[in-house]
Amino acid sequence: MGDCIFCKIIEGKMNAEKVYEDERIVAVRDIAPVSPLHLLIMPKKHVVNLLDLQPEDGSLVGHIFRVAAHLAREAGFADSGFRIVNNNNAGAGQSVFHLHFHLLAGRQMHWPPG
Ligand code: AMP
User: Fold this and answer.
1) Which helix (H) or strand (E) holds 66?
2) Ligand 1: distance of its center to the CA of 14 in Å?
3) Total number of domains constituting the chain
4) Does residue 48 fall inside a structural domain?
5) Lower CB count within 10 Å: N or C terminus of the chain?
6) Is the pLDDT of residue 1 over 90?
């Protein structure tokens, strides 16, 4: 998508610190972290949010979650805990309309989330 900042990051046209990449997904550090570990894990394919997933995307979200667990473990937060957040549409806080999952760790999390 031409004006999508995450597509530009994925294509290398915009700077971001990539910490993981495979054929289907990318993980980058959030530019405005809200916890010591704050990664964004996203598909390379432009998908707006969960509402835009297609039948052929079947295993994509499961793959993202497996990689999230791998990255949390690799960063040393498997035992202390980590949180995955996914905002769908503006009312839930989505500001970038390319599907992504926040991986947050390194501080005490609270419930309910804001
Ligand atoms: P959301 O509000 O759930 O759509 O999350 C979007 C996230 O993208 C926010 O946490 C932003 O800080 C982050 N973000 C926006 N632009 C960039 C960028 N260029 N590089 C890395 N993270 C970004």
Assistant:
1) helix 60-74
2) 13
3) 1
4) yes
5) C
6) no
